[in-house]
Amino acid sequence: MDGLSATLEPTSPDTVVIRLAGELDIATREQVTEAVQAVLPVFRPDALVLDLDAVTLLDSAGIGALVSCWKLANGAGCTLRLRNPRPLAYAQLELTGLLDVFALPRA
């Protein structure tokens, strides 16, 4: 699958989940940051969760986009967590020292 899709899932008044599917790379990094920028002022969630279960590729630009999303959320007084990263994505996040930043449990 080429590209990236983002599906919004309000789960409660204070938490919003964005389900990402596809490739999170240099070509699609702006899509995820734009999705987060759109959600924060509308929903004003306490927590934002990016679900990576259907992300098939995560490169360094994609990791950079996730960090940008974390900064955007943090600046809006919102926590940002990742959930369901595939094993390779998890390993990349672990290697870059970002597990704690994104509240991912250690394996």
TrEMBL record:
Stretches assigned to the STAS domain: 13-107
Family matches, as InterPro entries: Anti-sigma_ant, STAS_dom, STAS_dom_sf
SUPFAM superfamilies reported for this sequence: SpoIIaa-like
Domain of life: Bacteria
Coiled-coil zones: none
Pfam families cross-referenced by the UniProt entry: STAS
Transmembrane intervals: none
Gene3D superfamilies documented for this protein: STAS domain
Protein family per UniProt: Belongs to the anti-sigma-factor antagonist family.
Name of the protein this chain belongs to: Anti-sigma factor antagonist
Record organism: Dactylosporangium darangshiense
